[in-house]
Amino acid sequence: xxxxxxxxxxxxxxxxxxxxxxxxxxxxxxxxxxxxxxxxxxxxxxxxxxxxxxxxxxxxxxxxxxxxxxxxxxxxxxxxxxxxxxxxxxxxxxxxxxxxxxxxxxxxxxxxxxxxxxxxxxxxxxxxxxxxxxxxxxxxxxxxxxxxxxxxxxxxxxxxxxxxxxxxxxxxxxxxxxxxxxxxxxxxxxxxxxxxxxxxxxxxxxxxxxxxxxxxxxxxxxxxxxxxxxxxxxxxxxxxxxxxxxxxxxxxxxxxxxxxxxxxxxxxxxxxxxxxxxxxxxxxxxxxxxxxxxxxxxxxxxxxxxxxxxxxxxxxxxxxxxxxxxxxxxxxxxxxxxxxxxxxxxxxxxxxxxxxxxxxxxxxxxxxxxxxxxxxxxxxxxxxxxxxxxxxxxxxxxxxxxxxxxxx
Length: 408
Known about the structure:
By secondary structure, the protein is an alpha/beta fold. It has 17 helices and eleven strands. The strands form two sheets. Strands 4-3-2-1-5-6-7 form a seven-stranded parallel beta sheet, sandwiched between helices. It has a four-stranded mixed beta sheet with strand order 9-8-10-11. Strand 1, helix 1 and strand 2 form a beta-alpha-beta unit. Helix 4 (78-86) runs parallel beside helix 5 (104-112) and helix 12 (238-251) runs parallel beside helix 14 (328-339).
C-alpha cells in the first residue's frame, strides 16, 4: 500500500492524480492541500478520507471545518498548513501539483522529512534547482517528474539503461535517491535532450498577430486539457522555457544540450539523443495520467485505461523549429537560465503576474513579454540565492510590475 499527500489537489494535476488513485486499489491519500475550491475539496475529503487537509485562507478553513465536522480530519491553513501536508508522517510520496513559487518551501520541508517528490510544480526547480537537487541527494530522496515532457525524458533515459547512481548496488530501483546520475560516463552518453512542444494555439502566427489575440483564443490549446495558467504559458511558449530550466536541473545537463523541437501532433512527448547518434523517444496520447501514474509507481509500469495510439490512423508526425523571435518567452527563458542566479526567479515571477493580468484582461498578450523584459532589464542578479532571497526577489518583481502598470 502506497500512501501519498497532494499539494494542489483541486487543480488539473491534482484531480488527475486522484483519478489514478481511484483506478488503483493500493494507494491511500493521507493529506490534501488546495487553494480556495473548498466545495471540491470537501468532496475529495469525503471520498478519500485523508486525516489532514489544508486550504490557504483561514476563513475558508473555518468554513471547511464546519462542512466536514462529521469526519475525523484536521483542517489547517496557510504556509504552516502546506508544510504540514508536505511532511505528513504517513505519506511516503508528496505530489507537488500546486501552481507557483508557493510550492518551494513545502517541497523543501518534504525533502528534509524524507518524502519522495512527484514533481509537477515547475517553479520549484526553475527558481531553486540549485538548492533542491543537492538537498534531495543529501536526503536520499527521489525527484520524479510529472510533467509530460520531463517524464518522457526520464523514461527514455531508463530505456537506455541509465539508472540512478544509488540504484546500482541493489536490485530495487525504487530505493534510488534521485533521477540524475552525475557520473562522467552517464553524462557523456547524452548528446542532447530534445524537448518537444506542440506550438500551442498560435503556432505559425506573427508577432503582430499575437498583439490582438483574446484570452479565449489563448485558452484553446489544440491538444492538451490543462489549467488556465499553464495553458497561457503554452500559448506564449514561456512554459517551454520553464521546462528547459527544469530539465537542466533534473537531468544534470548543460543548456546547450537542450534543444526545443515543435511537434504539433503531441505524439512524441520528448526524446534523448545519445553519444552514438541513437535517439530514443517516448510516444503516447496526450494524457497526463500516464506520467502521474509512472511517477507514483516507478519503476513499475501498470495498466492504464484510456486511448492508445493507432499508428494506422496517424497521417504524419511532423517537426518544426520554434520561432523565438515571435514567441519571446522561449528566448527570454534561455537568457535567464544562462545568466542564472536570481534571474530565473525574475523571469518566472514576472510571467506569473503578467499572466494573471492577461487573464483579468488588464493587458494584451504580447504585454506579457514586455513585462518579463522590463523586469529582467531592471534586476540586479544575486549569484547564488537562498530561499529567503528567492522569495524576496519574487516580491520585488511584483512591486516593480505594480509601479510600471501606468506605463502599460
